[in-house]
Structure to design on (760 residues):
């Protein structure tokens, strides 16, 4: 009995002692948590891989999953004069008609997905102290990816919440306070400066110096800093790490080629595959066809595409008055010499090219044009003609590149690669061009349609403190 | 029985009166014209921005207006030049340059309205011409700096490089020229502010001793600006000309060195020589 009392006392003492320690916040020892996981450089690198994974998105249609890049064409290309739905049905058709509702699920999915990209980047950035000698490179990579996410969001939504570190659900102030576009641009520029300083050009599927320079050039052009943009483009050209593919088709069907500056990789017939390639065909994906080519884009490609036209659009054999995008076809096209990238087209392996060298050459022309109506600069002509010559077209006829000629060249070179809308916005032509296009197809475009609505869910969660964009 | 009935009637009466008093009281509380009516929490708010047209002809006279009003259904524009519109996003062609006051009145179907007014100053855009930078002490003359001072070579010094000498004979014009002794250990350097992607021509005159043969006096146009001789990299030169005419030590030879500034808003003139005593005089620059 006395022995038992002693044991009891001892146990009680031990219990009391443990109480005094961290009884209310015990560090779990048998499970992994985000607070204790990152202890080695490899683990921090896995946090960086996780950011790419978020941009890559999940091959699914569940609104709980991240889709990010997999849904980007809806918000960009289908809101430009390049593409539309085949059947003009459902909420996907709101984009081509410029009748987007604040409740549109695709917009909400994209918004949520890209803030998840930012969250994952912030997780990586907050654990750099465990990255040892890899810290510099991993910081540069994470910051490039965060800048890329903010670049997309600020172009699509205007003023947006600026989340620079991981936040708790209680931090409604950060999550729902819209910061001015200029403030978002400043974070993008700061992040890209870190990325440019900390990266080299050794990868096409991870962030590189050239990728950060290209994105920076686009931001500087938008801000009117033409000289900075020109110097960035010339640094990429001068690196000698990139070249135009001789055949236009090879850009898209010879993966990892040296025209690619930054691509998001997908693996066929796996959980790392993508669905958008199938969605762009007639009932191969889950829809009856989205991202179909408008007559306006077809006419532009017919007139100015050169060798690019046949690898940009084709006739839909199921309905010969309709036209599909050829870039990124998942199930092959024998007539064009394109083989399937996967056995199940709904699990396509086509990589998505975010940035490529032809884009840089045309940005170079844009930076020399410097907001003027035309340029005859030899450096601009050299870049411009390199892109034209690859497409089998002759040099610019009169040796003077007008703004319209540059816009046309960008349109046919980069058609269906999600550049068109951002190009029009950056060059200040969105209202003109999309206004005229909308009128021609019986839709109505006003200046407030340049920005998407902030998802209604966010406004509801903010308790009404978050303001909607005008016109919604 | 009869008595009981009377009582019951009385009771009902009391209840009925009480109820009607209650009703009457609640009626008195009704101060709004309609039950459930609330104030308009989102009255119209007018706002717009204007953008000038671009093009080669008279597009600059055309302004497009972006309507940024909220909670409004009807719009009335006054463009300040006598023209008006009720479109959502109209365009207006102005008669020419001037300041115009534009007002937008946005109203809703309750008759509430809001007016936003802004002035625009319309000027015909001019094609920007390249800046012609001044070259300081371009003829290496004394007291030729803008403030009337200078020894003819103050503007041409570069830390880490031997400063040029000044000669009084032979000169191309004036009373002094730059002299580069045969040792080739002197250099002249001056940075200029220029317009990017513009064509310029630098004109100068040089002469060299007739012997030994095989010398040169070279003028480079270098991108950007450096503060140390060690940072000079002539392999990056935008343009250069190596003068090798040793036919006369007295007669100056004219050189026109054309270049395009490319992605630079600063370029520098850098001059040095090899083997032979050389002279340079009368530099000038023009935008082409």
């Amino acid at each position: 009995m006395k022995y038992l009392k002693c044991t009891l006392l001892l146990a009680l003492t031990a219990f009391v002692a443990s109480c005094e320690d961290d009884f209310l916040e015990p560090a779990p020892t048998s499970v992994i948590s985000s607070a204790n996981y990152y202890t080695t450089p490899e683990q921090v690198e896995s946090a960086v891989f996780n950011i790419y994974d978020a941009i890559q998105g999940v091959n699914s249609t569940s609104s709980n999953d991240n889709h990010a890049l997999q849904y980007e064409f809806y918000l960009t290309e289908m809101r430009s004069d390049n593409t539309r739905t085949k059947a003009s049905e459902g909420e996907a058709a709101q984009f081509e008609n410029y009748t987007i509702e604040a409740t549109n699920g695709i917009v909400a999915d994209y918004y949520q997905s890209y803030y998840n990209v930012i969250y994952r980047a912030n997780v990586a950035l907050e654990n750099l102290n465990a990255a040892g000698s890899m810290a510099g490179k991993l910081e540069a990579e994470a910051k490039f990816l965060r800048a890329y996410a903010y670049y997309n969001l600020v172009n699509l939504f205007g003023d947006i919440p600026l989340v620079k570190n991981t936040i708790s659900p209680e931090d409604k102030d950060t999550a729902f306070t819209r910061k001015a576009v200029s403030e978002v641009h400043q974070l993008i520029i700061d992040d890209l400066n870190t990325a440019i300083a900390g990266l080299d050009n050794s990868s096409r599927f991870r962030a590189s110096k050239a990728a950060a320079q290209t994105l920076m050039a686009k931001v500087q052009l938008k801000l009117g800093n033409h000289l900075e943009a020109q110097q960035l483009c010339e640094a990429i050209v001068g690196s000698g790490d990139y070249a135009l593919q001789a055949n236009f088709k090879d850009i898209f069907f010879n993966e990892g080629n040296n025209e690619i500056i930054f691509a998001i990789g997908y693996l066929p017939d796996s959980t790392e595959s993508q669905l958008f390639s199938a969605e762009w065909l007639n009932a191969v994906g889950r829809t009856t066809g989205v991202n179909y080519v408008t007559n306006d884009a077809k006419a532009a490609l017919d007139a100015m595409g050169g060798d690019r036209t046949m690898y940009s659009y084709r006739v839909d054999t199921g309905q010969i008055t309709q036209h599909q995008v050829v870039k990124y076809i998942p199930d092959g096209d024998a007539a064009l010499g394109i083989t399937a990238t996967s056995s199940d087209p709904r699990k396509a392996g086509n990589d998505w090219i975010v940035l490529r060298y032809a884009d840089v050459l045309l940005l170079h022309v844009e930076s020399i044009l410097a907001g003027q109506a035309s340029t005859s600069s030899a450096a601009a002509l050299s870049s411009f003609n390199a892109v034209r010559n690859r497409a089998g077209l002759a040099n610019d006829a009169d040796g003077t590149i007008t703004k319209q000629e540059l816009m046309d060249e960008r349109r046919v070179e980069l058609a269906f690669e999600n550049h068109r809308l951002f190009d029009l916005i950056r060059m200040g032509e969105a209202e003109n061009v999309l206004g005229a296009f909308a009128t021609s197809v019986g839709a109505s475009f006003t200046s407030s349609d340049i920005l998407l609505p902030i998802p209604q869910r966010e406004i509801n969660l903010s308790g009404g403190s978050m303001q909607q964009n005008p016109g919604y | 029985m009869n008595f009981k009935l009377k009582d019951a009637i009385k009771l009902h009466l009391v209840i009925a009166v009480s109820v009607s008093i209650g009703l009457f009281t609640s009626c008195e509380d009704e101060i709004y014209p309609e039950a459930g009516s609330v104030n308009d929490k989102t009255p119209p708010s007018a706002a717009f921005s204007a953008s000038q047209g671009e093009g080669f002809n008279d597009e600059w006279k055309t302004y497009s207006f972006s309507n940024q009003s909220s909670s409004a259904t009807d719009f009335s524009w006054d463009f300040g030049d006598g023209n008006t519109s009720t479109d959502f996003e109209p365009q207006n062609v102005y008669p020419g340059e001037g300041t115009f006051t534009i007002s937008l009145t946005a109203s809703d179907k309750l008759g509430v309205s809001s007016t936003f007014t802004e002035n625009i100053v319309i000027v015909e855009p001019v094609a920007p011409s390249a800046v012609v930078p001044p070259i300081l002490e371009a003829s290496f003359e004394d007291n030729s700096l803008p403030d009337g001072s200078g020894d003819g070579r103050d503007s041409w010094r570069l830390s880490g490089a031997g400063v040029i000498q000044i000669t009084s004979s032979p000169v191309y014009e004036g009373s002094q020229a730059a002299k580069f002794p045969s040792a080739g250990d002197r250099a002249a350097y001056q940075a200029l502010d220029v317009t990017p992607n513009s064509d310029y021509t630098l004109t100068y005159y040089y002469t060299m001793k007739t012997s030994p043969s095989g010398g040169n006096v070279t003028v480079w146009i270098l991108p950007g600006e450096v503060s140390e001789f060690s940072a000079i990299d002539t392999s990056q030169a935008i343009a250069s000309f190596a003068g090798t005419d040793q036919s006369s030590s007295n007669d100056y030879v004219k050189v026109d060195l054309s270049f395009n500034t490319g992605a630079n808003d600063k370029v520098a003139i850098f001059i040095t020589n090899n083997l032979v005593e050389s002279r340079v005089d009368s530099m000038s620059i023009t935008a082409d």
